[in-house]
Design goal:
With 581 residues, this protein is α/β, with parallel strands linked by helices. The protein folds into 4 domains: 86 residues, 2-Layer Sandwich (Gyrase A, domain 2); 141 residues, Rossmann fold, CATH 3.40.50.620; 112 residues, 3-Layer(aba) Sandwich (Rossmann fold); 180 residues, Orthogonal Bundle (Isoleucyl-tRNA Synthetase, Domain 1), CATH 1.10.730. Helix content is 51%, strand content 12%. It contains 21 helices and 14 strands. α8 crosses α9 and α19 runs antiparallel to α20. The chain is globular and about 85 Å long. The relative contact order is 0.10.
Length: 581
């Protein structure tokens, strides 16, 4: 279905063409948007045309309205202030929009007319240790973006570019060489009891001994060269690490395909050779680097992007370039989206530019989405009480336990099975929602109390609202979803009208969510619709004896639409709903 915004925009554009030529149309027409304070929708296009047409904005607005035909969708069109155009929708038009959404399995949201093959690179933990809270944002932001694009009809490759080839493995391998030499001779018998213990012991030695650190770096070169015994031990660490990662992904309902840095090992010398032959890589202090325009060091001297170190080893930039070349030329993706810490912005700007220089990609093919940090209530990095890094699994377990406890306090009559389901859904979902309700690019404070609040912009509030629509079905003795496409809408009460307009505005909100890839915009909308439903619920009785059957069915239809919107919206960030909360 066409959104109300797009419908009004097309009509405004048609009216404009009666006043000016097509060549004089602005490159970006100001789109009508919701403004419930003054009208249903408001447009200020006249302001942007004042200079070009050499007229006062209000006069332009008057000329526009005189040529504007919105009689099929609007009750009235008024001019306000210096030239704002206010639109009030017809009730019949609003009903038509809602009825269309009610009978459509996609709620009226159309698939893209131009499907693409899009790779989303997300999560991407460094292996050899357990996932911690620092891996949370990339994992759930990337998953939600993949869900958005999949719903739009794109072919999405969900790629886990795991760090299985870096310094941390050189450190572990060197530790094994020095402390457990038998493991190198009999790798088939080598077992890992605790990844964390191995990592802490080797990291301590790495930090305290320069000799060990240098030997660890040399071990990375041995690994990249394919030394047999080194590879055998490396595989044991990788398998143990990936098993742990996928336990976390299963808990969080994350679907992802692993392809580690090691998969591109054979391409690394090819990439460097390509860069040399193209004249983009030059030798600099024994290493090979690419000098990009605009990149300088503190002394204002040209700063190279290193692609091969002086000892012959390769770095992250080389691996990322190899991955880009493979993805664009071999996998033939149309676009690739990288979801990482915002502090990696400069790194990705450089490898994207080098990729464009080599014509492996075009401007716009590669996109970096950088996210801020997850902080504690005190505004400092989220840590354990003793200052350690919190394991992601521990965070999820605690979230589940807290939600389980809250459910028992709120609804003591549920079964144990229902309490556990609420604990898992509201706990894990609460962690996701708490993160994604904030702007991706900013830091945010994680607060257990806010995450599990029953009256704020939280997962549990949305889950409770959905459960209320299902509870209505149980009380009425008929599934409210049976009203979809059958009941006749009656919008006599102001709260019915307000809720109906909010439901219809999903058609306006969703294109912005998918265009900007902003989960928080979607969740803000879901929170607003839940609040409007609460006001409607309190003001508009549904099952009281004095309510007519037609009004009862109409209000049940509105409740069913709210439930469907919330269920669909939460699914877009990987949260399942429950009939009881």
């Amino acid at each position: 279905m066409q959104s109300i915004t797009d419908t009004l925009k097309a009509k405004v554009e048609l009216a404009l063409l009666k006043l000016i030529s097509e060549d004089e149309l602005p490159d970006q027409l100001v789109v009508p948007s919701q403004n419930p304070k003054f009208a249903d929708y408001q447009c200020n296009v006249a302001m942007g045309l004042a200079r070009a047409l050499k007229k006062a904005p209000r006069q332009i607005a008057e000329d526009l309205v005189a040529n504007l035909d919105v009689s099929d969708i609007c009750e009235s069109v008024e001019i306000a202030g210096p030239g704002f155009i206010n639109f009030k929708l017809k009730e019949d038009f609003l009903k038509e929009v809602l009825n269309g959404m009610a009978v459509d399995s996609r709620l009226g949201l159309e698939k893209t007319a131009n499907p693409e093959k899009i790779l989303v690179d997300f999560s991407s933990p460094n292996l050899a240790k357990e996932m911690h809270v620092g891996h949370l944002r990339s994992t759930i932001i990337g998953d939600s973006i993949a869900r958005f694009l999949e719903f739009e009809g794109h072919e999405v490759l969900r790629m886990n570019h795991v760090g299985d080839w870096g310094t941390q493995f050189g450190m572990l391998i060197q530790y094994i060489r020095e402390e457990m030499p038998d493991a190198l001779n009999n790798p088939e018998n080598f077992k890992i009891a605790s990844l964390e213990e191995f990592y802490r012991a080797s990291k301590k030695k790495f930090d305290e001994s320069e000799e060990f650190a240098n030997a660890s770096r040399k071990a990375v070169v041995d690994l990249q060269a394919g030394e047999e015994k080194t590879l055998a031990v490396w595989k044991v660490f990788c398998e143990a690490s990936m098993q742990h990662c996928h336990e976390i992904y299963e808990l969080m309902d994350i679907n992802i395909e692993d392809r580690g840095e090691s998969a591109y090992n054979d391409l690394l010398p090819v990439v460097v050779d390509d860069l040399k032959k193209a004249g983009h890589a030059v030798q600099t202090q024994g290493a090979w680097g690419v000098f990009l325009e605009g990149y300088k060091n503190e002394d204002d001297e040209p700063l190279p992007t290193i692609v091969q170190k002086s000892d012959g080893g390769y770095i992250y930039a080389t691996t990322d370039l190899a991955a880009i070349k493979y993805r664009m030329l071999e996998q033939k993706v149309d676009r690739a989206i990288y979801v990482t810490d915002a502090r990696q912005k400069g790194h990705f700007e450089q490898v994207f530019k080098i990729s464009e220089l080599m014509e492996w990609s075009k401007p716009g093919d590669l996109q970096h989405i950088g996210f801020g940090m997850m902080l504690g209530k005190d505004g400092k990095p989220f840590k354990t009480r003793d200052g350690g890094t919190i394991k992601l699994k521990d965070l999820l377990v605690e979230a589940e336990e807290r939600a389980y406890k809250l459910a028992k306090e709120l609804s003591p009559d549920f079964t144990e099975e229902e309490f556990k389901a609420i604990g898992k859904t509201a706990g894990h979902g609460g962690v996701k929602y708490s993160d994604l309700s904030h702007s991706i690019g900013t830091d945010y404070k994680f607060d257990w109390d806010k995450m599990l609040a029953t009256d704020g912009n939280t997962a549990i509030y949305l889950l409770m609202t959905y459960a209320r629509t299902r509870g209505l079905s149980r009380k009425a003795g008929v599934d409210v979803n049976d009203m979809l496409g059958k009941a006749k809408l009656i919008l006599d009460d102001p709260q019915e009208q307000k809720l109906a307009k909010k439901i219809a505005s999903l058609l306006d909100i969703w294109p912005s969510v998918t265009r900007e890839l902003t989960p928080n915009l979607l969740l803000s909308y879901l929170f607003e619709i839940a609040k409007d439903f609460s006001s409607f619920w309190n003001a508009c009785p549904i099952l009281k004896p004095e309510i007519t059957q037609e009004t009862k069915e109409s209000r049940m239809l509105l409740a069913a639409l709210v439930g469907r919107v919330i269920e669909w919206g939460l699914s877009m960030i990987g949260i399942k709903v429950l009939d009881k909360v």
